[in-house]
Amino acid sequence: MHEHDVVVVGAGGAGMRAAIAANEEGADVALVSKLHPVRSHTGAAEGGINAALRDGDSWEDHAYDTMKGSDYLGDAPAVETLCQDSPKETIQLEHWGMAFSRDDDGRVSQRPFGGLSFPRTTYAGAETGHHLLHTMYEQVVKRGIRVYEEHYVMQLAVTDHEDPEARRCHGVVAYDIKTGRINGFVANDGVVIATGGPGQMYDHTTNAVANTGDGAAMAYRAGVPLQDMEFVQFHPTTLPSTGVLISEGVRGEGGILYNSEGERFMFERGYANNVGELASRDVVARAEQTEANEGRGFENDSVMLDMRHLGEERIIDRLENILHLAEDFEGVNALEEPMPVKPGQHYEMGGIETDENGETCIEGLYAVGECACVSVHGANRLGGNALPELIVFGARAGRHAATRQPETAQIQTGPSAKSEDGHVDTPVTPGEIDAGSEDVVADGGALLDAPAPEVVERTVARENARVEELMERDGVNHAEIRADLQQSMTRNVNVFRNEAGLKQALRDIRAAREGYRDVAVSDPSRTYNTDLLHTIETRNLIDLAEALTLSALAREEFRGAHWREEYQFRDDEQWLKHTQVAWNDGRPDLYYTPVILEGEGGEYEPKERSY
Amino acid sequence: MSTQLPESETETETESDEQAPSAPVQQQRRMERKRARAEEEEREAVEEETELDGETYTLKVFRYDPEVEGKKRPRFDEFVVPYHKGMTVLDALMYARDHYDSSLTFRHSCRQAICGSDAMFVNGRQRLCCKTQLSDLTDPVRVEPLPHQEVVKDLVVDMQHFYDQMDAVEPFFQTNDLPSGLEEQHQTRENREKVKMSTRCIWCGACMSSCNIAAGDNEYLGPAAINKAYRFAMDEREGEELKQHRLEILEQEHGVWRCQTQFSCTEVCPKDIPLTEHIQELKREAVKNNLKFW
Ligand SMILES: Cc1cc2nc3c(=O)[nH]c(=O)nc-3n(C[C@H](O)[C@H](O)[C@H](O)COP(=O)(O)OP(=O)(O)OC[C@H]3O[C@@H](n4cnc5c(N)ncnc54)[C@H](O)[C@@H]3O)c2cc1C
Ligand code: SF4
Ligand code: FES
């Protein structure tokens, strides 16, 4: 059993920033990650980090753009914190030596990005995330922060009170991938979950194979609500054969989109008369899908993205990485030909509900980064707003967990913040099949009010039993279940959604759950057993896919990334509220909480979004 | 695809292994059944797919598991995978794992040449599997773990030595005079250009694995770590004093002077980093610096 003050789960941008902040507060920190830190998916981020750094720009403008981009589903206190802290945190990266692109005067470069009223996206070529991730890891090494790499966290050690808000998180249980040992980690001050996005719910995604939403699923089963899961961002420019992302930077620099009739459809078909290709992502993704659906796409249902006119020099200077991606993964020389692109799953706006300090409704449990929903992106994230989220809220959560300062949050979390119960007609019963955990309320649940080591110990025992069973029995391979789930999500819960499709997805998810009852791990070895890991991950994907689809079926309006065939308008009267899905005794419980539009300088008035 | 397990099994006696927590004999049986099923399914799948369009690739994959009796002795397994245009070696490995043998073990994550986890020895050369098109290789495709590193299981090698060498060069930005508050350090475009290639390293370990010197001298810092040091030594923001300190680290007995300019690292680097050139440049700096030759 290991013991630390703060245990951070996940070592992407968010996790490492949290670990560094906690370390700066003097805490003894453990960074526990299923991948070596530099393998985290933050490294794939391309375009940049939004920060109001220049004369003529201000955090207020950044906040305004973000609220508008969110389709008024962002919480103003979180959005304002993001925009206020981002300049400081971005400069912090510069001070740590990050290799940003430079202007002639030696200052960091900034470029335009979709949905922004000022070119405030700070970048390092088209590989900003790679540089951010490595810079952050360098600081982790410099500070001697303890890293447990290739440790797969499989469960949270949470007490078993009836009311989730009375529960406390005492640590985590992890499988040491190399040795096969299952270890307990006691966290005296707090556990920070930073496990990244769940893109593997879909089969066409920009996300890494490791992005299976483990942290969100664990927090959910421990009793923390998942917020606004129906809002999934589909990036408009992914390569059709692999889902590899072509950065928005291409359009930011002036790249144009056209259809098979040679039309620059963003303008010519009136999708965004003012800004064309630079409209926000949901708008462009829908435009492309419409073109494809109406027969004006190329093979693979793609459209073309052309950057040849930018000239070789500018392309090499700012987008060189794109040339390599197009060449290696699509066989296209982007200096000479346009690139085929289509929408692909990219980012989950929703996630573990937290306040501005990253804390959840379970004491001692924090979440940051893509797995979390502090509600800065609302219904649609602006490009370049995720990386600042990692550093701003990563730092806040790490600090808060380490010092436990009683700074009160403006955003209320947990079931007690609810404003109304939700109802939705489902074709199948969602939730656990045999409720599984008869003697415990929370799935992570261990022991009511025992000393921390005992709570962790008991969770270790449960996990050992679970693994033993998965390895001993014979049955179905998880890969079949996962593939079916991914295909159904892509078919039914994509850019365009309707009631029949969402219901079909729920049936398929139910089938996946039933299939999972017979899942078995075939690899008999404890050493580096990826079969076991993927089997556990698959269950996490099932739980998250269900929460997402339920939320989407319930929201009967069209807002941000959530388009519904039957409801072609944004309904502020009914739907200006956050969806929450909470795991309650083996079943998902749906309810709603109010959106906070009141900021420092007054209220953000919902307006029609036009670009 | 069928999920029934054929009930054929062979009994093999195994000594008990302290690593293995559950009964080894039972594991062994499961292995056998698993393998029988895999073969069956592979045959079915291949028949199915070849009926469709016929094109397949054969992978010959290195297998080793220290814990499982049948796999303790290294061997090669053959997997025939249906080919589609654009398929990479990683796609083929994943296909083999998901359809034929779920115990086939390898590292991978991003599928886009940025996480650095799937460098392997493919047809006799260090490559990133996700970035290597099957169509660029001759069939059958031989996939082995990175040479000169200890194999943990199948295609997974122990990267600890690589990480240790990285740590040895103080791999973090250091400077004595930082501007205050929101002020940035300035860096010229030329200087950023100069370090740009060196900052691209994704820690895949291909270079180290290809290097004869590193294979013979366990203490040699190796191309990746030297490149990491280059990244900071040449960054004007760190200042002269620190550059001096960095050169001292690089000039030690197992530093830059070990390099015999064989270029193998530069050839295999999937990020096109001019490693040998960087090492040569550091040697020149060291000469200017008038320090020891080893
Ligand atoms: C291709 C691409 C390009 C992008 N470009 C941009 C951009 O230009 N600008 C922008 O702002 N945003 C961008 N984004 C979004 C942004 O990069 C991500 O949202 C962000 O990097 C997520 O960071 P994270 O720290 O939350 O998670 P990740 O970086 O995904 O890290 C997750 C960590 O959790 C660990 N982990 C996961 N599960 C477990 C477990 N069970 N046990 C232990 N450890 C676990 C992993 O090992 C990993 O270390 C992009 C995203 C993608 C996919
Ligand atoms: S220098 Fe190149 S080959 Fe070596 S570890 Fe880095 S990316 Fe891999
Ligand atoms: S899978 Fe990430 S580099 Fe190949």
TrEMBL record, chain A:
UniProt region (Disordered), positions on chain: 401-424
Keyword terms: Electron transport, FAD, Flavoprotein, Membrane, Oxidoreductase, Transport
Domain of life assignment: Archaea
Enzyme superclass (EC): oxidoreductase
GO CC, any one term: membrane
Domain FAD-dependent oxidoreductase 2 FAD-binding residue range list: 5-387
EC number: 1.3.5.1
Keyword Oxidoreductase: yes
Active site per the UniProt annotation: 281
Membrane topology: Peripheral membrane protein
Primary site of residence: membrane
The protein's required cofactors: FAD
Cellular localization per UniProt: Membrane
Cross-referenced Pfam families: FAD_binding_2, Succ_DH_flav_C
UniProt name for this protein: succinate dehydrogenase
TrEMBL record, chain B:
Source taxon at top rank: Archaea
Molecular functions per Gene Ontology: 2 iron, 2 sulfur cluster binding; 4 iron, 4 sulfur cluster binding; metal ion binding; oxidoreductase activity
Stretch list, region Disordered: 1-51
Cofactor: [4Fe-4S] cluster; [3Fe-4S] cluster; [2Fe-2S] cluster
All copies of domain 4Fe-4S ferredoxin-type, residue ranges: 199-273
Pfam families xrefs: Fer2_3, Fer4_8
Keywords from the named record: 2Fe-2S, 4Fe-4S, Iron, Iron-sulfur, Metal-binding, Oxidoreductase
InterPro entries linked to this entry: 2Fe-2S_ferredoxin-like_sf (IPR036010), 4Fe4S_Fe-S-bd (IPR017896), Beta-grasp_dom_sf (IPR012675), Helical_ferredxn (IPR009051), SDH/FRD_Iron-Sulfur (IPR050573), Succ_DH/fum_Rdtase_Fe-S (IPR004489), Succ_DH/fum_Rdtase_N (IPR025192)
Segments of skewed composition (Acidic residues): 8-18, 39-51
Residues of the Succinate dehydogenase/fumarate reductase N-terminal domain: 58-163
Stated family: Belongs to the succinate dehydrogenase/fumarate reductase iron-sulfur protein family.
Protein name: Succinate dehydrogenase/fumarate reductase iron-sulfur subunit
The organism of origin for this protein: Halomarina ordinaria
